Structures are given as structure tokens and as C-alpha cells.
């Protein structure tokens, strides 16, 4: 049933791959975007904040188009929408901004019409749009998600991240689109490299499931994508090699990059050392970057309420980072 007062949803950022889990493993992060959606007489799209720069505000907008896919799938017609969006997730840096927009659009549109589609269906739709299930799975379900996509359907298991896990991301100022970072990957890999990754990805998932934080550093290494992408991110090769010596439990390129992500024991007394090491290594390569301490987000896409009680910006005030 249509929600005449509209819906307000919050969607987490995500980090994909976590090293060896290329296109399969993702974790939601405590950095968010918000979408307000309401039926309207005439479509109006309002985008707020610097992370929305350059995103269209007409019916070619991704969120609008995906909402229409949901209505079509559910057999209802809602041609005109009022959409508001604000995001703290930096664009095109490997923190899943596109996945959060896709998941947010699917989730909000479905909620607007009374949630006729299951979460499993939304996951299949999101994966078909994004082309890989790792980011969208984490943004939709929260926590750690390991998923398999057969082209039509995604199977997944969601796990609760260990309570001692904290996340440090170092976000370079430059952008690197996922499509560009996929172009440098080889089409074929050797059996040796396949075994290298399967074994580490399996070990990583088991270690995360059982709280074996001591195994994370060795389980997080990768031969499928990081060696090829290292040339796109100055300082990355050195950081992947040495971050553990500076206090990280494990280190990886976040998604397709250029952000680098360290898993850290929140009780560690070496957090400042690690942050300084990561920033200084990038600086030595001439790369300006900012560091941000995050937590795994247990919550995925969430319906916060309706749009009835105030303006979009008033409703999210107090939650946003800036
Ligand atoms: N809220 C949004 N609305 C429309 N398009 C978006 C939105 N957020 C991200 N995108 C699109 O996704 C692109 C970034 O996706 P991608 O290269 O996969 O990087 P990442 O998802 O890691 O930020 C942006 O350049 C933009 O085209
Ligand atoms: N598995 C994908 C993940 C891309 O993540 P993003 O956050 O950079 O969009 C890949 O490694 O290409």
C-alpha cells in the first residue's frame, strides 16, 4: 500500500573484496547516505552536499530510474516522485557510493509502495544493476556479506563483524572509477593464483566468523586484483606490504580503490602510528589524502520513518557527518 507521507531511508557505505574476496566479500561501514522519496504531481530531485556534485536532477537520475524499475516489477505506477538525497560517502573512491545509491533507490521505492518485493529480490535487482554482489549486499544487509551471483540470483550469508574490529580508511583526493579500475585486470589467471585467492578468501571468512583476528593479516592478501591496481594508486604497494608492521590487523584496497582500508583492533595502542604511516606514505608519493576512522555497520538499508514530520534536511540533521 502506498505511503502517502513518503519514506526516509538511510544506507551505509561499503568496502568490497577485503583483499582476496574479489567480487564476493563486502562489509558495511558507518558512513551513510540518506534518501527521501514521496509521490508527487511533478518530479523534483533535490541533491544536497558536495558529494552530489554533477549528479543529474532530471528523470535520467539513477535513483529515479531505479525506483521506476521497482514500480514496474511490482506492477504499480508512480510516474512522478519527489526525491531528496544527501550523502557523506565520497564519490568514486572505493567506498560503494554507487551501491548505496542503487540499494537506497530500490529500498526506498519498495518501502514507498508497502514493500511488496522481498529483500532477496531487491538484492538480485541490485546485483544485476551493479554487476557484482559485494558492495550492494553489504549496503542492503549490513555487517559482513559473502555472496555468489549466477547472473540471475544472488545467494549470500550475512555475518556480524567482530566487536573488536575498527576500520581506518585513507581516502585519496583523486577519483578512480570502478570501470577504469576493472580495465587493468587480466582476463585469465593461473591456477596457482586462483588457489592462492580461494584459500585466503576462505580462511578470511572463517577467521572473521570465528573471531580469529590473528589470522587476518595473512588471509587478506590477494593476487587477483590488487597487484594490477597498485599502479593506479601511488603508495599502495608499499602500504599493502608494511601496514601490518605499523599496527594494522590487515590491509586492503577498498573496493576498486583508490581508498586503502585497514582493519584495526579497537583496543590497539598503535592507532596513531598507523594513521600517520598511511598518510605519510601517500604524501611522500605526492598524494593528498584524508584519514577517517569508521566502524563496521551492523545495519544495512534502514527505513527511518516518513517524510511527514519536517523537511529532509531537518530530518537527517544530527545524523550527518559534516
Ligand atoms: N547518489 C547517486 N546518484 C546517482 N549516481 C550516483 C550516486 N552515487 C554514485 N553515483 C554514480 O556512481 C559513480 C561512482 O561509482 P563507482 O565508480 O563504482 O565508485 P564507488 O561506488 O566506489 O564510489 C559516480 O561517478 C556516479 O556516476
Ligand atoms: N568487486 C568490485 C568492487 C568495486 O567496489 P567500489 O566500491 O570501488 O565500487 C571491484 O573490485 O571491482
TrEMBL record:
Question: Which positions bind ATP?
Answer: 90-100
| EC number, UniProt record | 2.7.1.39
Q: Name one GO biological process term.
A: threonine biosynthetic process
Pathway listed for it is:
Amino-acid biosynthesis; L-threonine biosynthesis; L-threonine from L-aspartate: step 4/5
- Gene3D superfamilies linked: 3.30.230.10, GHMP kinase, C-terminal domain
Subcellular localization is given as: Cytoplasm
Reactions this protein catalyses? L-homoserine + ATP = O-phospho-L-homoserine + ADP + H(+)
Member of which family? Belongs to the GHMP kinase family. Homoserine kinase subfamily.
Q: What is this protein called?
A: Homoserine kinase
Which organism was this protein described from? Paenibacillus mangrovi
Q: Tell me the gene name.
A: thrB
